[in-house]
What we know:
Blueprint: E1 2-3, E2 10-19, E3 29-39, E4 44-45, H1 53-56
Antiparallel strand pairs: 1-4, 2-3
Amino acid sequence: TLTNTRTVSASEVVQLYVLYPEAANEPPKLPKAFAKVDLNAGQSTDIQLQALLEDLRIWSEQKED
Length: 65
């Protein structure tokens, strides 16, 4: 749940990051989904971000998978 605790309207960018193990040789965290949310003063909303399974996979030329 995202809540605007301010007394004025505001926007926020909600971000989803994936953390891979160090052995994956990937950056420590990669952005996979985001959404811009506009909220009035005092308003709350639930946020759902989607990432496809394909977005979470990494390719290893050594293992070919």
